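Postdoc handover notes: sequence design on the structure in folder B. Input tokens:
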């Protein structure tokens, strides 16, 4: 069988689609026949990674209507700054007709742009905010301070305890010394009392001693005193002394204990003062230990409170950060929408001819203020033709505005400008609200007709109704599309399918949508080589069109991919 290969560049999108359909159908039939002749399963359907266009569209069905009169105006009131045409001029599609002063609108746009820049800067600040890291560092430092404070307090209390123990030991030692000197005093007093209270007086030099000695300190003396002195230091050995006598022994001798009493009393006084000083030092050390312990506990608790505060700050910062970022994302999105709306207001200060025609009415001169255009119909904004099938819609050109004395009518009614004798058609199409949000003036449109299947015409979006209409309990917005090409077979009231191109990229690497597997943000395809080996490959997807997906990276031109069945 001979296959005829048609170049895709010479076929229209509809014909290319149909050609692909018949080729796919023939391939499927051939594969089915081959499968019937053998036991092996048929090979999977495949597609190819190739360069082309990726287009996203929204479509809806409407009615074709012949344009007999085109009313033009500005969406917002403003002062006319420039009028480029005169009544009777012939204009072409896209030609600039008039301008209003855009100063106030540009100022509003600049102000919103500044707010958007500010919110975007705040968003960057929230994303890169180091509050959480700082709070964590503060918490770590507070914990280190708490540990250091605890060690310092423990060291100080240990030093206080050591000082108190030393004071205790010193008091015990000095108390023992006091007891000893008191015992010495009492012993000397008792000894002195037994000896009659006579202090000891050494004999003069040269006085002879007993027991055949040469003298008291002479040769042969073992104690250096006479026999009478021996034992005087011991009251018990000295024996009783009668009152008023000088005691035993030579005249002038006495008890040395009496001589020591004054020194003993001085020693006792010094020892008592030392003990009192030790007690005062002990009390001071104990008081210091109690004060230091209390102050240390306060210091440690303050450091512990700082740790708790730092922990709370960290938890608060960590919990607030994602919500702050989400809030800032919402603010950026909101102001971005306002900036886009303000940009559209600035663009709408330039009035362009949506179609070719003859200027029949101009209501306004430079310097005057024009009011917002109300359109000819709430269901078909920006045009004068009534929507087919709707009754009771009157043209705004019938408004009786003018001189009541003469009865003259103001041409064009409330419209700023009117184009007449427009040899073209328009399509008024209701789009559901999700699709209408993607439609904007000047977008390209592909239009097909149920009555003429082989005819496709290009068009341009003129305007989108600002208010919705309830059609079969669904909110729809009417969109007016003007045809850029005409055909003698077109008739008023025919059903038309309008496919509005909302986005389009040309000459890019593409892959069939039916080959793409999506999981979250990841896109994958299954490659198949000449040997039938399959490999799942992840790639970076771009714009997703109606039938193909843009490939940014990860795939090469010419690779074959497996198509999912039933897609």
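Designed sequence:
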């Amino acid at each position: 069988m001979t296959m005829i290969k048609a170049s895709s560049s010479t076929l229209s999108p509809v014909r290319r689609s149909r050609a692909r359909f018949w080729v796919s159908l023939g391939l499927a039939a051939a594969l089915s026949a081959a499968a019937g002749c053998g036991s092996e399963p048929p090979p999977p359907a495949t597609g190819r990674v190739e360069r082309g266009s990726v287009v996203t569209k929204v479509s809806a069905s409407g009615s074709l209507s012949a344009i007999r009169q085109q009313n033009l105006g500005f969406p917002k009131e403003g002062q006319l700054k420039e009028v480029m045409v005169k009544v009777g001029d012939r204009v072409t599609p896209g030609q600039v007709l008039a301008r209003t002063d855009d100063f106030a609108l540009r100022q509003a746009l600049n102000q919103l742009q500044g707010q958007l820049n500010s919110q975007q800067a705040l968003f960057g600040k929230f994303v890169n905010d180091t509050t959480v890291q700082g709070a964590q560092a503060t918490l770590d430092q507070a914990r280190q301070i708490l540990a250091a404070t605890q060690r310092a307090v423990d060291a100080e209390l240990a030093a206080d305890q050591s000082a108190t123990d030393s004071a205790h030991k010193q008091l015990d030692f000095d108390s023992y010394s006091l007891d000893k000197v008191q015992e010495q005093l009492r012993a000397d007093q008792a000894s002195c009392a037994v000896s009659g209270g006579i202090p000891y007086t050494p004999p003069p030099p040269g006085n002879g001693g007993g027991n055949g000695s040469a003298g008291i300190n002479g040769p042969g003396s073992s104690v250096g005193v006479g026999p009478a002195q021996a034992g005087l230091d011991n009251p018990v050995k000295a024996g009783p002394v009668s009152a008023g006598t000088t005691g035993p022994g030579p005249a002038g001798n006495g008890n040395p204990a009496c001589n020591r009493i004054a020194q003993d009393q001085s020693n006792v006084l010094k020892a008592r003062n030392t003990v009192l000083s030790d007690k005062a030092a002990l009390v001071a050390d104990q008081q210091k230990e109690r004060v230091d312990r209390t102050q240390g506990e306060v210091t440690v608790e303050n450091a512990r409170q700082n740790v708790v505060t730092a922990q709370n700050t960290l938890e608060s910062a960590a919990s607030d950060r994602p919500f702050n970022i989400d809030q800032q994302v919402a603010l950026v999105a909101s102001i971005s929408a306002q900036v886009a709306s303000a940009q559209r207001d600035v663009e709408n200060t330039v009035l362009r001819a949506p179609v070719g025609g003859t200027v029949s009415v101009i209501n306004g001169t430079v310097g005057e203020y024009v009011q917002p255009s109300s359109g000819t119909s709430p269901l078909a904004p920006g045009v004068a033709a009534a929507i087919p099938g709707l009754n009771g819609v009157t043209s705004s050109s019938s408004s009786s505005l003018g001189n009541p004395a003469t009865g003259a009518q103001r041409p064009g009614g409330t419209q700023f400008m009117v184009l007449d004798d427009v040899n073209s058609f328009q399509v008024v199409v209701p789009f559901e609200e999700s699709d209408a949000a993607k439609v904007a003036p000047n977008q390209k449109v592909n239009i097909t007709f149920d009555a003429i299947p082989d005819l496709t015409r290009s068009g341009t979006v003129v305007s989108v109704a600002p208010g919705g209409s309830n059609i079969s309990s669904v909110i729809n917005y009417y969109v007016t599309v003007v045809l850029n090409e005409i055909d003698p077979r077109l008739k008023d009231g025919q059903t038309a399918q309008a496919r509005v191109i909302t986005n389009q990229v040309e000459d890019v690497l593409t892959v069939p949508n039916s080959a793409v597997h999506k999981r979250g943000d990841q896109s994958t395809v299954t490659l198949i080589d000449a040997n039938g080996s399959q490999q799942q490959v992840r790639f970076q997807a771009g714009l997703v069109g109606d039938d193909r997906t843009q490939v940014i990276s990860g795939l090469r031109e010419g690779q074959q991919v497996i198509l999912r069945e039933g897609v």
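Context for whoever picks this up: DSSP finds six helices and 21 strands in the chain. Don't rerun without checking with the PI first.
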